[in-house]
Protein: WD40-repeat-containing domain protein
Amino acid sequence: MSANQRPVLVLQPSVNTTTVTTTTTTTTTYAPIQLPPLPPPSPPQDPKAYPLLHANLPQSLRHFPLVFPNGSRAIFRDGDGGDEDMQEEQEVASGVGWRMLKRDEGSKDVAAVGLTEAVERYGKKRSHTSDDLMEGIEIPGSSSTVPPPRKKARAAPLPQISTVNAAAPPSPLPSPHGSPSPETIWPSAPPSGTSSPLPLAPIQPDLALTTLLTLPSLLSHFTALPPPLQSHFLLTLLRHSPLPVLRTLHSVLSPTLARDFLTLLPPELVSHILSYLPFSTLARASRVSRSWRAIVDSDPVLWRDLLKSTKIWFGGDSENAFASAINARRRYAQRTQPPIPNPLPLPHPYKMLFKSRHLTRTRWVNNPEPKHISFAAHGSSVVTCLLFSHSRIISASDDHSIHVYSPVTGELLRTLQGHDGGVWALAACKDTLVSGSTDRTVRIWDLATGRCTHIFGGHTSTVRCLSIVKPEVIEVERDGVITKEKWPKRPLIVTGSRDQSLRVWTLPRPGEAEFKCFGSEENEVDLAEVCDAEENPYHRLHLEGHDHAVRALAARGRTLVSGSYDCTVRIWDIITGTCKWVLLGHTQKVYSVVLDLGRNQACSGSMDGTVRVWNLQTGQCQHTLTGHTSLVGLLGLSPSYLVSAAADSTLRIWDPDTGELRHTLAAHTGAITCFQHDEFKVLSGSDGNLKMWNVRDGTVVRDLLTGITGVWQVVFEGRWCVAASNRNDSTVLDVWDFGTENDEDWIGEPAGGIYDDDIFSDDGEDDEDDPKIKALKMRSMDNDDDDQEQADIDAMDQDLVPSETDSVVELDLAHDRQGSQRRLEETDMEVSDSRRSADIEIDLSEGVGASRWAPTATITTTTATSSRSSQFGRSGKASAAAGPSRRSHLNAVPEASSSSSAARTLPNNDETPTKPRIRSHGSRRR
Structure:
């Protein structure tokens, strides 16, 4: 109650009943009587020490009824707002010409009068009444009443009654029958300025009225007491209070005295306190209030320590990649979605990562019956590639087609037709899909529409492997100083082919100019007249150097690792096209490679049964991992584990830091045809079954598929797992959902930890490393200013221009081999039906010819000065040594003049993965 408000006592209208021959009921309303005002509270020096000073009393304590000893009723209202707080919207009973009045409706507009004025008015009224009747009191058996006074009672203003030292009610009024008892009558007064037709109703004081009158004095005494005595006094009162009173006080004291310690303590201390709670308690605490949710969800140190304490923190690289992907998604949502009013605080990515990994660790093991659907796909053809990207299943087959399915229903969403041969390489990035085929082309598809937007030609044999290189921050050494830079500046495509070379392309953005080397779909040209790759504005580099088919590649940042059937592994800089290292050591074909930028190393698996770990800085072989007895056709890498799968029906788990063998997974009965792993599990397919292993202890968790002919491919991400298998000469896709209804926000981590969110966001630095893209854009803009256009085209990035002193690497191998033209020494030994088992057959004849690579190469470094020319910038091409005993410039070199170039022709499309095409040396068409 504010200081300018005073409590009032509202008397219930008195009822006077007169019985004659009929009964007459008269209702008299009275003006509210103002009680003595409470002394205003003195402003405390420390408001925090008086939390109840301005607390709002409950409604039941601001408005309650009083009953006096003689049966008179009154209503106590605390302050002017009591009436408004208590008024409830009730339906009023009414009829034609009448309406029922609400309680106290007639006294709403009556001005309150003081207690002294009410007593004075009552004294004046008594002179008009009879001495042998008490005004307003009914006499039993009486048949008449005293008529009311004919004159209006004057409301003379009188000073308010003093309440100082008011230990008892004021002295009672004089009585015509002598001195009254202490319970004498206390009258009220009728409304000011109105005549009362009936006598006034009396009230008799009791403890309630006495307490109300003495409350100001009592409050003044209480505030003057010392705190210990105040506590003792209140505690004494509470000890004598019934349970309803204590409950009412508790409802006032509990919210007032409650303290949100998380919002009052320093953030460092809050984080330390919360670190002692298990994650289940933290999840419940985040639902207490918005402030608690903001504190719990936004604490990166808390969730990082929780990840570490539960042993699901894997070093920092994968965690930072997850956080960057989440932040990229949020930036995209801010640009594309309308803002949400008063949104809930967004959790830190580490909290989302903890939930994802916790669910991955528990659901895949503890969910005994995950949701499972099966559906036919690609007829009876082999599924050569399988992806799970952005809640889409993408499968490629040797039937020349690519299918897109829904993992929820198994519905075929799109069929991508266009390749003239089997599709053997696939990579996806959001709504962009890149495919490589035996028809020697690279196609780019828009998954949203199903259109083939680009066709890149240039390879002269099967495109066997490809990868999309996404921009990421890497460590780069310049002049002995290691700095962090983002490479590449925009996404690239790297393709490897059986024509013994690799090519680097710029990944076109959605909406950029389309390029199709075969012409438009409406006007197809003869496939024998394929245009040169140099005419493609998206082509960047042609990496030559391998002497046999390129079987596997891996690329990140600026580094590209390629493995070939020539038994070598090469390390390239995909920005400059420089071959940094030729890694010698394998004695037979290299079938698989992985790249580990965090440890600055690469790993390769070969037909010789070994896995080699190479140092990217020195080019030396750090570890040779032995144990497999047959072809190591598959390699997988996670932050803590290197997994190899071989044709000897086993998988082996290695420590990538030390090369130590941790576990041997030996439960399959045939060659391992596919597998994928993360930090918790390994899924492997072989003849007849698909198994799940615990990667940490090497035990079998469950069999997902049994009794089938074979498993072609398997992929998983987050809650989803997809497998392509063969059953009764039919290809079937199986999909498992290991999540529950409460796991809708389960965000999975992609294989390899490479995310494709917001990869096209850096608009300011995208095309500066490729002048041909600039030229294409300038032509599409139809700029009339030729001079300005030419100047923009000539503004080439340093990546494609050689330095003043280019490095030249000379390879002097022990076995000199002459000849100006390479020859393929032998054809691949893969089965012509292109089945997966063909990739793991052993070619015994290859080991003999491959022994020539055993001697260590002597590498001499010289320098050559080359001028920067626009002709070199246009070509953007790197050539490398094709055989031993030949001097080769491994960096980019100027291309020969166009007058001596001849057109390439594409022969009949009869090539398969087992029959590579011999490069022709005709004239190039310009």
User: Anything to note?
Assistant: The two ends are 94 Å apart (CA to CA). The longest strand covers residues 710-717. The mean pLDDT is 74.
